[in-house]
Amino acid sequence: MKKRSKRGLVIVLIVLLVLMLIPIKLAYLDGGTGGYRAVLWQVEKLHRMLDVDGSYLVGTRVTLLCGLIPVYDDTHVVTEP
Predict the structure, then answer these.
(1) How many angstroms separate the CA atoms of 79 and 81, rounded?
(2) 69-73 and 41-49 as β-strands: parallel, antiparallel, unpaired?
(3) Per-residue CA distances from 29 to 13, 32, 41, 45, 65 (Å)
(4) 0.90 cut: is pTM over it?
(5) Nearest-angstrom CA–CA distance, 69 and 41
(6) Is 72 within 8 Å of 62 (Cβ atoms)?
(7) pLDDT tens digit sequence for 35-77
(8) Nearest Cα to 45, choosing from 30, 32, 63?
(9) Distance (Å, whole) CA 46 – CA 73
(10) Are the C-beta atoms of 75 and 60 separated by less than 8 Å?
(11) How confident is the model at residue 33 (pLDDT cuts 50, 70, 90)?
């Protein structure tokens, strides 16, 4: 009986881990930002307006654990003439 309950626990943990990796597509109303978010990771393609003078934050950002651990970030500010 113990072996059976351990196997069931392992199966439940694996299913939970897989569910935490499934992303949801997001689109923001801030100038064109979009991306994917899951419980364990997040990818954003930024095109966010910063000020009324026409400057934008653009680039790609990848983080783990809901934004706590940055993995990749090439965002930069672009000013439109």
Answers:
(1) 6
(2) unpaired
(3) 36, 7, 21, 13, 24
(4) no
(5) 9
(6) yes
(7) 999 989 999 999 888 877 778 889 999 999 888 899 999 999 9
(8) 32
(9) 10
(10) yes
(11) confident
